[in-house]
């Protein structure tokens, strides 16, 4: 991967679901070590964008990871190029330990990989899992089960699960959902630390306080289109953003977003 290339670059990415244009000509970049926010009212097309980048939604336009075109590749091949995501409802397996939750996340898709895993009884190297746990600061709870952890720690296990196995670009879809203000702030600090170690992060969250605090840059989607991009300060004051949120100033509360269209 060339240092000059953004980790993620989309050009004119569009997704249509029947008569609905869920993404229209979305052009966005994420650089190494950068946390980029993707915000917008309910139904604006944020999850669709992540689906399109990871190969779970059919799209037109270009998707480049580290300068290489990946649009047209199936999800597992995009994963191999270093792209990983969390899901909106990213539940953990309560009966497995934290380390085991990470182990089951490491897939080796494809028939050859499956046969190799069956024949060798292969499990991901402990070092791979250890390194992901270290990155998110959860080494001490590797042998605990999710119900024994705080909600904030459980959310971080979800992030670690996406990090395991060589991830350079993390796409986080509402990773802080359900956290209270204090937990969310702590989550934001951890996220900054993780990104500082190298990976680029695309963050979708309805917690405006988290997003405005933690992101270096933001893109605002409305009806599938980018209507504004800039630093948190620029976005907070952009008139078109305020208008998209039904006239509410973009304040640091989830309420402003919940007031958006459904
Ligand atoms: N699989 C699908 N089939 C048909 N329409 C879909 C599908 N997924 C999303 N849509 C539509 O595409 C649009 C964008 O939805 P999307 O879930 O991407 O928005 P979002 O910004 O992530 O919303 P939220 O903040 O509520 O999660 C919506 O109109 C939605 O109804």
Order of the strands making up the biggest sheet? 6-7-8-3-9-10
Low-confidence stretches: 253-262
Give the cofactors and ligands: adenosine-5'-triphosphate
Q: What is the annotated CATH architecture of the largest domain?
A: 3-Layer(aba) Sandwich
Alpha-carbon distance between the two ends: 40 Å
The DSSP helix count reads 11
CATH topology of the largest domain: Rossmann fold
Structure class: alpha/beta
Outline the biggest β-sheet.
6 strands, mixed
Question: What is the share of helical residues?
Answer: 25-40%
Q: In CATH, what is the class of the largest domain?
A: Alpha Beta
**Number of DSSP strands?**
10
Using the CA coordinates, give the radius of gyration: 18 Å
Morphology call: globular
User: What series of H and E elements makes up the topology?
Assistant: EEEHEEHEHHHHEHEHEEHHH
- What's the CATH superfamily of the largest domain, by name? P-loop containing nucleotide triphosphate hydrolases
The tally of domains stands at 2
Which percent band covers the strand fraction? 15-25%
GO molecular function: ATP binding; ATP hydrolysis activity; L-isoleucine transmembrane transporter activity; L-phenylalanine transmembrane transporter activity; L-valine transmembrane transporter activity
Domain ABC transporter: 8-248
Protein name: ABC transporter ATP-binding protein
InterPro entries: AAA+_ATPase (IPR003593), ABC_AA/LPS_Transport (IPR051120), ABC_transporter-like_ATP-bd (IPR003439), ABC_transporter-like_CS (IPR017871), BCA_ABC_TP_C (IPR032823), P-loop_NTPase (IPR027417)
């Amino acid at each position: 991967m060339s240092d000059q290339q953004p980790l993620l670059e989309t050009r004119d990415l569009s997704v249509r679901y029947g008569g609905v244009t869920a993404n229209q000509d979305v052009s966005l970049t994420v650089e190494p070590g950068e946390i980029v926010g993707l915000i917008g009212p309910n139904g604006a097309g944020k999850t669709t964008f992540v689906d399109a980048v990871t190969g779970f939604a059919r799209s037109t336009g270009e998707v480049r990871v580290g300068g290489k075109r990946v649009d047209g590749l199936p999800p597992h091949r995009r994963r191999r190029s270093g792209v990983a995501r969390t899901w909106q409802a990213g539940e953990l397996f309560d009966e497995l330990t934290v380390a085991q939750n990470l182990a089951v996340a490491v897939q080796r898709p494809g028939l050859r990989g499956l046969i190799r895993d069956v024949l060798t009884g292969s499990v991901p190297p402990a070092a791979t899992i250890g390194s992901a746990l270290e990155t998110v600061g959860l080494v001490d709870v590797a042998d605990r089960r999710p119900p024994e952890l705080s909600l904030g720690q459980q959310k971080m296990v979800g992030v670690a699960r996406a990090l395991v196995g060589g991830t350079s670009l993390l796409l986080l879809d509402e990773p802080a959902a359900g956290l209270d203000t204090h937990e969310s702030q702590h989550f934001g600090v951890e996220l900054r630390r993780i990104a500082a170690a190298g990976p680029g992060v695309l963050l979708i969250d309805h917690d405006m306080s988290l997003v405005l605090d933690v992101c270096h840059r933001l893109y605002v989607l409305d009806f599938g289109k980018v209507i504004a991009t800039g630093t948190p300060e620029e976005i907070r004051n952009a008139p078109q953003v305020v208008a998209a949120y039904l006239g509410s100033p973009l304040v640091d509360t989830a309420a402003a977003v919940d007031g958006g269209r459904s």
